[in-house]
């Protein structure tokens, strides 16, 4: 042992980020956005597995989510906006039928994933497409009324 701190150093935060009472970065003060998700793992929320891969694009006035759902049928996919910054995609897919497999990695079952979005969105005017096992969801960002939310006048 060298006597030095062997763990990682203190986490530095940008001056435009705020922290919660446990020291976690929660929101960019100027844009009112959550910080980007670390891609160090395949999980957006702890304890929930990432059953499929997604790309999330912050594009102008839209947030675009592209999800790979191989083997899923369009009528077996459920998309739900749980709150303005959380999307849940669930899909059922049938596994290969028959016996005699030496290795079977493409099993059937339910795939589900919670996706933290980079900005608050609304479900109104959402557009979706599903082609060749790839789902695309286009969501419109909510209009931000200014820094810190909406001002409420005193009556």
TrEMBL record:
- Keywords for this entry? Stress response
Q: Which residues form a coiled coil?
A: none
Q: Which PROSITE patterns match?
A: SHSP
Region annotation (Disordered) ranges: 1-42
Gene3D superfamilies in UniProt: 2.60.40.790
State the InterPro entries in the record: A-crystallin/Hsp20_dom, HSP20-like_chaperone
Q: State the protein's name.
A: Heat shock protein HSP20
